[in-house]
Amino acid sequence: xxxxxxxxxxxxxxxxxxxxxxxxxxxxxxxxxxxxxxxxxxxxxxxxxxxxxxxxxxxxxxxxxxxxxxxxxxxxxxxxxxxxxxxxxxxxxxxxxxxxxxxxxxxxxxxxxxxxxxxxxxxxxxxxxxxxxxxxxxxxxxxxxxxxxxxxxxxxxxxxxxxxxxxxxxxxxxxxxxxxxxxxxxxxxxxxxxxxxxxxxxxxxxxxxxxxxxxxxxxxxxxxxxxxxxxxxxxxxxxxxxxxxxxxxxxxxxxxxxxxxxxxxxxxxxxxxxxxxxxxxxxxxxxxxxxxxxxxxxxxxxxxxxxxxxxxxxxxxxxxxxxxxxxxxxxxxxxxxxxxxxxxxxxxxxxxxxxxxxxxxxxx
Length: 364
Ligand code: FES
Ligand SMILES: [Fe+2]
Hints:
Blueprint: H1 6-20, E1 33-39, E2 48-53, E3 56-62, E4 68-72, E5 87-89, E6 92-94, E7 101-102, E8 108-110, E9 125-126, E10 128-131, E11 134-139, E12 162-169, H2 172-177, H3 184-189, E13 192-203, E14 206-219, E15 222-236, E16 241-247, E17 252-262, E18 267-276, H4 282-285, H5 294-322, H6 338-345, H7 352-363
Antiparallel strand pairs: 1-11, 2-3, 3-4, 4-9, 5-6, 6-7, 7-8, 10-11, 12-18, 13-14, 14-15, 15-16, 16-17, 17-18
Bound molecules: FE2/S2 (inorganic) cluster (FES) and fe (ii) ion (FE2).
């Protein structure tokens, strides 16, 4: 009857009310940080892509020299949408409405009538970086410049990333919490015997932890195989994290990205990617893989790896889409370091108090 004690029942009521009011979390929908808006190969030279990010319309474009830029979607002249008929001219983007052009810093370089450019015609650009084939953008609620950078991975000896994309109703803090939520590993994913190899460690915006999981699975054409996998979680803010996974049985090292990006305050995009360290000999994983050209074998291994992780990820979707956020949670022995993770997350909401008072005003 613990859940009927005063403290617990009031927590439940507060959280349920939050969900019925349409927004399920006691923190803002848009935390500061680096977020993925696409894969590099989706954006060819001269191409413009429209996205909704943090409830704002933006465009991603690649200039003739290959530079990747993210800007507001609407032209500062008279509001034309750059993603609907805009074009790339050299190192500029040209608006389809009156032909004004803007360089990669957002400065207007010419009007459509060869007249003097208006000083106020500045297109807002967002801090952007292309890292390991990921198109990353930085968001800060007060427009501050990035205070940290996402790390660049050495891609030597790693296969090129296999990629997937999903859209679900959740929040980046919730999806990242998954990696420290040990209690759900056996229930949702069928993993057993979680062993902690390294406790959660926080250093500023970086969070790290290491653990071992076991699971019986059908992998690489071998059914009923018991897998022991070491997971090392690296989190750089709520939009950029990856897991290094070592499967001893196959001497296989993989790197898996699960990148949650807020769209509109309700939905998020999850970009998922996997690559495999080519130290492993394909024939050691399965004899048949040793019979085909190694580049094909690595491609198959990478795709199979991504599929395995995406299947795991998909098992969480229903939970994420329907859960509410319990604060404080009723933790038990067997749960992971949820409280430490949540404490780490607070730094990404410099606008928390302002957001809370805005909500109070809105709800009267
Ligand atoms: S609205 Fe873009 S050039 Fe006029
Ligand atoms: Fe999960």
